[in-house]
Each structure stands twice: as C-alpha cells, then as structure tokens.
C-alpha cells in the first residue's frame, strides 16, 4: 500500500517536468512543421541551371589575380569604413568627439 502511494506521490511531484516535456514536444513539432513546409516548397522549385565554366584564359588570370577573393576581402572592410564614417559623423554632430 505504501509503495502505491509513493508511486502516486512521484507522479504528482513530476507534473512540472511533464508539463515542460509537453511544451518542449509542442515546440519541436512546430519546428518540424516549418521544416516540412520548407521542404515541400523546395520540391516545387525548378532545378538549378548548369554552372557556367569560364574559358581557360579567364581561369588562368583568376589564378594569378584572384578578383573574387579581393572583392570578398575588400567589401567588408569598405562596409566597416563607411560605418565608421557614419558613427564618427554622429559623434561629432552631438559633440562626443571634436
């Protein structure tokens, strides 16, 4: 008899854990539905086009002077510089720096 009462007490003590588990399961199910919707949308999309292969001389030029890499490096630096100019303008306007 005492064992049965301890089992019932254990169930009542674990009700908050059961509620949290139910909430977690609901959230996971929600994200699974979103994932299924995205997968269904991707299946409807047409196939990707063929990859453009540049001529051999362009590949040779790109080997010695990697334009894409230079643009990939210079773009964030340029963006940071423009952001710095904007922040310094705002600081100067409100008198934080002279």
Briefly characterize the structure.
The chain is mainly α and 98 residues long.
Overall helicity: over 70%
Number of strands: 0
Task: Give the overall pLDDT as a whole number.
Answer: 90
Give me the secondary-structure category: mainly alpha
Q: State the major sheet.
A: none
Distance between the termini: 82 Å
Q: What is the C-alpha radius of gyration, as a whole number of Å?
A: 30 Å
- Count of DSSP-assigned helices: 4
Number of domains: 2
Fold and architecture overview:
The protein has two domains: 1-48; 52-98. With 98 residues, it is mainly alpha-helical. The protein has helices at residues 2-13, 15-44, 56-64, 67-93. It is flat.
Structural topology:
Elements: H1 2-13, H2 15-44, H3 56-64, H4 67-93
Task: Please describe the structure with a list of short key phrases separated by commas or semicolons.
about 100 residues, mainly alpha, about 80% helix, flat
